[in-house]
Amino acid sequence: MMYFGRAKTLLILGICVLGALLALPNVMPSPAPWLPWRTVHLGLDLRGGSYLLMQVDMSAIERERLDDLADSVRTVLLKANIGYQNLAPQPGSHRVFVHVRDAAQHDAALAALRTIPLSVPGEFTVDDLPGNNLSLTLQPGALKQRGADAVKQSIEIVRRRIDETGVADPEITRQGDSRIIVELPGIEDPERIKALLGKTAKMTFHMLDESVLPGQPAPPGVEVLPVQNTGEHLPVRKHVEVDGADLTDAQAGTNSQTGGWVVNFKFNSLGARRFADITRTNVGHRFAVVLDNQILTAPVIQTPILGGSGEITGNWDAQGATNLALLLRAGALPAPLQVVEERTVGPELGADSIRKGALALASGFALVILFMGTFYGLFGWFANVALVVNLILMIAILSLFGAALTLPGMAGLLLTLGMAVDANILINERIREETKNGRTPLNAMETGFRRAFSTILDSNVTAFLAHVMLFVFGSGPVKGFALTITIGIVTTLFTATVLARLMMVKWYAAKRPQVLPVI
Amino acid sequence: MFYRPMLRFVPDNTRFRFMRARWFGLAGSFILSTLSIGLFIYPGLNLGIDFKGGIVMEAHTPTPANIPALRTAFGNAHISTAGLQSFGGPQDLLIRLDAQPTEGGNQAMQAEVRKVLEATQPGSKVVRSDVVGASVSHELFTNGLLALGISLAMILVYIWFRFEWQFAVGAVATLLLDVTKTIGFLVITRIQFDLVMVAAILTIIGYSTNDKVVVYDRVRENLRKYKTMPLSDLIDLSINETLNRTLGTSSTVFLASLPLALFGGETLSGFAWAMLFGIAIGTVSSIMIAAPILLLLGEHRLRRDVTTLPVKPQVPAGAAR
Q1: Which CATH architecture has domain A204-310?
Q2: Is residue B309 predicted with pLDDT exceeding 60?
Q3: So what's the pLDDT on residue A108?
Q4: Does A443 lie at the interface with B, CB-CB under 8 angstroms?
Q5: Does chain B have fewer CB atoms within 10 Å around its N or its C terminus?
C-alpha cells in the first residue's frame, strides 16, 4: 500500500491536473472561443428566475375523447336508422353509454358501433350490457398512451410559446406521468408567461344554429356558448367547420377602418379550401370563432372568403391581440395546464444568497483547515492539501456535467469538506496508535492506512446510500444538495485515501524520518 | 502546528467506564425521545409551505415597510394573511398565506397580493415568491418520508451485511432515537420544517451511522483480538480507543456547519441549526446509546465461541507490542 510506481503517481497527479483544468473556467474568462469552457451551472435559487411545475389535466383529455366517441356513436346510429336513448359519455367509468330503443335492432347497433375507428389498436371495447344497453369503454393502456402523447405535445407547445416571448434559455422537461417543469432563468415576474401557458388556445370555426331561439334548450349537437366580454350567449353547432390547427400564421394588427386591434390569420391549403367552401355556401348566415369555449366574434358572412386569410375582431388592446396571435401561431395545448408549484427568486436575492453561501463556505473551510493543522500537524496539512484538491474536483465534476449548483448544494459542498477529513482523521489516529504500539514509521503508515480503509469505506457507503435516496425522492434545490454530497463522497475516497497517501509516501521517501510527527 | 500536532481532545489510554452508565444513557435517551414524540404529536412540527402548501412572498419596500397600513390594505382586499412580518432589515417584508382551495386560487391570490403591495407602498419589489399547491405538498411530504424510510432500511441491510445483526439493530435503533430527538428539537425551536430539513435529517442519519460504524468496527476488531475479555470491558476499550477520532470528526463537521448557521441566510440557517444539534446528539449516542444496545443484544451471542477456544493471555490495548 505504501508504494507508488511512476505510472500510478503520474495517473494520480494527472487526475488532479485534469480536475484543476476543468474547474478553471469558473475563475477566469475563456481565452479562446474554440475551447470547451464549461462553468458550474447556477440553480435558479442562486441565479434568479422562475420555476413552474405544471399539471396536464388528464381528465380533460379523457373527457374530450369520450365526447368525440359519443359524436361518432350518434353519427353511426343515425346513419343506420337505429333509435337510441340516453347517449352520454360517462367519464367516471371511462365509457360512452347508449340505450337501443328497439330490442330487434340490438345486433345492428352493435355492428354499427364496431365500425367506429380506433385511434390506436385496442383503444376501446364495444360492450354488450344487460337491458339492451351498449357501451364503448376506453382501455387503461390506451388512455395512458393518450396521456403520454398529450404531455409530449404539451411540452412542444409550451416550448414554442415561451420561445415566442423571447425568454432566454428556458428549460422544459417532463416530470412523472402528467407534469411539466418549466424553468425560466432571469424571470422575476412570471405573470405574463403563466397567463400564456394557462390558456389552451383551442380555436375552432363553427356555424351558428339560427333556428334555436334565445332561452330555448339546445338540441343535440348544439351548445350555447358565451360571447367574450358581452354576456351574450349564442347557440353554436358542435361540428367543427375549420380547426385552428390549420392556421399557418397569425399576427396582431389594426383594422384600417375602425382602428381597433385585430388578429390577422392565414390558413394552410386544407384550411383555406374548407373555409372557402363554407363561406361560399353560407353567405348571409352567421359563423362563430370559438376560443377555449368562448365566442370571440360571430359575424355574418357577407361574401365568400376564398384567399384563405382573414381577420378576427375581438375586444382587445395591443397586448391582448399580440398574445392571441402568439398563442395561435404556437398551436393549441391538448389539455389545460395548471401551475401547481411555483418558485420565483429575484436576481438580487439570488446574488445575496451567493454572497452568504460563499462567505459561509470560506469561513467553514478555514475553520476545518485550522483544526486539522492544530490537531494533526504535518499529516493534517497533507489532509488540508487533499481537501483543497477535493473542492477543486467537486467543482470540476459539477462543471463537466453541467449540474446545477443550488443554495442547499453549497451547504452540501461545505458539509462534504467537513466530513471528508473524517477519513484523514481515522487514518492519522490509526497511524498514531500503530506508532505507539512500536511499529516503524513505514510499517505504522502502511498498517494505519490498511486498517482504516475498511472503516472509511463502510462509513462512506452508508452516507452514499442515504443521499442517493434523497436525490431520487427529493425535488428542486434539495436534489442539488444530494448531488453535491454524492459527488463529494466519491471525490473524498480519492483525495483522502489515495492523494493524501501519495503525499505521505513521497514525503517519507524524501526525508526518511526516524519518528513520525504524530505524537 | 506545521509539523507536530499541538492539541488533542483526550490523553491516550483513557479508561472511561462508559458501560457503567449504560442504563442511565439508555433511560435518558428513551425519555427524551418519548417526550419528542409527544411534542411531535402536540404541538407538532412547524410545517413550511413545502409540506403544508400555501404562498410565501418576500418583498423589498423602498421605504421601511408600513406593516399596519399593509395589514389594513390586505384586510380591505379580503386577503387573509397567515403572517405579515418584517425580517432582516426594516425594508424586508415576509408575507405568508395559507393554501387556497384550488390551484387557480393560489395563483389569483398571489397576483392580488402583488397588486395590493404596489398600491400601498409603490415601488415595492417582490424578490421571492413560492407557491405550493395542495397536491404537490402531499407528494413532497410522502416522498420525504419515503426517502427517510428507505435510507434507514438500506443502512440496516448494509450494516447487517457487513457486521452481525446485533450491530445493525443497534445502529438503526440508535438512529431512530437520534432522529426523534432532532424532531423534538425542531418542534421546540419552531424552526420551519421543509424539504431542506429532510435533507438535514438524512445528513444527520448518514453522519451518525458513520460514527457508529467506526466504533462498531473497533469492537469487531477487538472481539478477534481479545477472545476472553468481557464484552462490557471490550466495548469500553473500543470507545476509549476511538474517542479522539469521534470527537475530531464531530468537531470538523460542527465547524463546517457553524458558519452556515450564523450567516448562511434564511434558507440555510434552519438547516444548519438542525445539523449542529444532530451532530451533538449523534456523537453522544455513539458512546452512550449504540454501544449499550450492542452490549444488551450481544452479551451472550457475540461470544458464543469463547469456550471452545484456548485462553490467551490478556494484553491491554496500547501496552507493549
Answers
A1: 2-Layer Sandwich (3.30)
A2: no
A3: 92
A4: no
A5: C
State which of B132, B167, B197 marks the end of a domain. Answer: B132
Q: Are residues B158 and B252 in the same domain?
A: yes
With 80 as the cut, is the pLDDT of residue B313 above it?
A: no
- Chain A CB within 8 Å of residue B67 CB: no
Q: Give me the phi and psi of A119, to 5 degrees please.
A: -80, -30
What is the grid cell recorded at A56? Answer: 396536464
User: Do B235 and B188 lie in a common domain?
Assistant: yes
Query: Are residues B173 and B283 part of one domain?
Result: yes
pLDDT at B308 over 60: no
Domain boundary among the residues B80, B100, B132 is at B132
Taking alpha carbons only, the member of A310, A346, A307 closest to residue A190 is A346
Q: Which of B12, B127, B248 sits opposite A375 (nearest CB)?
A: B248
State the fold for domain A58-143.
Answer: Gyrase A; domain 2 (3.30.1360)
The reply to whether B287 and B240 lie within a common domain is: yes
Quick check: B272 pLDDT over 90?
yes
Q: Which residues contact A130 (CB under 8 A, 6 or more apart)?
A: none
B208 and B231 part of one domain: yes
Q: Given the C-alpha cell 449499550, which residue does it identify? A: B292
Helix B22-41 vs helix B291-298: crossing angle, to nearest 10? 110
B90 Cβ contact partners less than 8 Å away, ≥ 6 residues apart: B64, B65
Residue of B nearest to A436 (CA): B318
Distance of alpha carbon A162 from alpha carbon A157, whole angstroms: 9
How many domains, chain B?
Answer: 2
> What ipTM does the predicted assembly reach?
0.89
| Cell output for A103 | 330490442
* Residues 321-380 (A) with a CB less than 8 A from some CB of B: 338-346, 348-349, 352-353, 356-357, 359-361, 363-365, 367-368, 371-378, 380
Residues 251 to 270 of B: which have CB under 8 A from any A CB?
251-260, 262-265, 267-268
Residues 6+ apart with CB under 8 A from A413: A361, A391, A394, A484, A488
Domain range for B98: 54-132
Q: Which of residues 469-508 of A touch B (CB under 8 A)?
A: 469-470, 472-478, 481-482, 485
By C-alpha distance, the chain B residue nearest A351 is B127
In chain A, the percentage of residues whose pLDDT exceeds 70 is 100
In a domain, B316, yes or no: no
Give the pLDDT score at A101: 92
Residues B281-306 have pLDDT tens digits of 999 999 999 999 999 888 776 765 54
Do B213 and A485 lie within an 8 Å CB cutoff? Answer: no
The minimum CA-CA distance between B133 and chain A, rounded to whole Å, is: 5
A78-95: pLDDT as tens digits: 999 999 988 999 998 999
pLDDT band at A476 (very low <50, low <70, confident <90, very high): confident
